[in-house]
Fold:
Amino acid sequence: MMYMLLYADRQALVTELVVWVVGVLLLVALVVLYFVQRKKRKELEGELTQLNKMKKNNIEYEFVLKAMRLATWHVDVRNRQVTSDNDFREKMDSYVPSPGTLLDDWAESLVETDRNRVMKSFDDICCGRTEEFHEIYKVKVPYVDKTYWEESYCTIASRDAEGNPEVLVGTSACIDERKSTEAALVLARNKAEESDRLKSAFIANMSHEIRTPLNAIIGFTSVLPDIEGTEERRELINLIQENNQKLLRIIDDVMNISKIEAGKEQLVMTSFDLNLVLKEIADRYEGKVGDAVKLSTMFCNATQNVTTDLNRLVEVVDHMMDNAVKFTSKGSVILGTSLVADSRLRIWVRDTGKGISEENQNRVFERFFKVDEFVPGAGLGLSICRTMAYSLGGEVGVESKLGEGSTFWFEITL
Structure:
C-alpha cells in the first residue's frame, strides 16, 4: 500500500514537471514569435513607406513632365530601338515613334539638314564616347506637310557588365514658340540696326542736301544788293526762288515720312474726278520741262471718279512727275491712267529719260537710294511714294530699260 502511494506521488510530480516544462517552452515560443512578428511588421511598414514615397515621386514626376510639356522615351542600345514612354506635349501634329522603332527609321522623320548631326550624337552616346546628348532639330510630321522644332536631352540609364551603355533615357519638347520668339528678337535687332544705319544715312544726306540750296540762297542773296542790271537781278531772284522751292521740298519730304511713320497723319477720304486732278498736276509741270521735252496726258476714260485721300494721291503723283522731269532731257513725259482690273486703276508716268538698270529697279524705292549721285535730290521721293501708296491700300512699281526711259506706276482701288 505504501508502495502504491509512493508511485502515485512520483507520477504526479513527473506530470507537474512536464506541465511546467511545456509551459516554459510555450512561453519562450510566444516571446520568440512576438519578436519575429514585430520585426516582420517593421519590415512591412518600411516597405509600405517606400511604396508611398515611390507613388508620391511618380505623381510629382508626372506633374513635372506635364508642367514642362515633355515627352519621355528610352533607347535599347543593343537593338538600337527607341520607344516612347509618355507624351505630355500639347495636342498637336507631333511625331511619336511606335514601340520598338529602329533608331535609323526614327531618323527618317528628321529634316535632311539635321539628320546626320543628330545621328552622330546618338552614335557617340551609344558607343560611350559621350555621357549626355543635347540636340535641337526639325521634325517632319508623317502624312502632313508640316514641320516643327524639337529639343531633346538624353543620358545613359544603365550599363552592362563591361560598362558599355545598355539603356538610354531621354526627353523631348516642342520649341516652336521659343523659335518664333527668337526669330522675332532677331528681326527686332535687325530693324534696330537698320534704323541706326538709316539715321546715320539720313543725317549724312540731309546735311548735304539742305546745305546745297541753302548755300545758293545765302550766296545769291548776299550779292543781290550789288547787282544793278534789271535782267541780272531777275535771274538771281529766280535762282533764289528755285533754291527756296528745293529746300522746301526737302523739308516737306522729311515731315511727310515722319508723320506717316509716327501715325500722326490720318486718311481723309473724298470723292473727286481723278482726270481733273491729274490735268492740274500736268499743267504745273509745263514750265519745268525743257524745250526738247513734250509733256502730255493720256486717260483711259473721259471722266474717272475715285474715292481716296486726295492729298496723298497728289503727293505720290507729284513725286513721280518730279522724278520723270528731272531725268528726261529730251523726248516726252506722259501722265496717264489705265484700268488693270474691274476694281483697280493704274496711274502711270512714262518718260524717255535715262532709264534704270535691272539691278537697281528693286532699290529705287529705298530711302536715300539715288541712281545718279550727281543729280540733286535727297533720295526720299520714291520712298514716300511707296509708303503713301501702301497707306492707301495700293502699290507702286517701275518698268524700265537703261537708256530707253521708265514707267513708274501707282495702283489704287476704285
Summary: Residues 2-68 form the longest helix (67 residues). The two ends are 149 Å apart (CA to CA). The chain has nine helices and 13 strands.
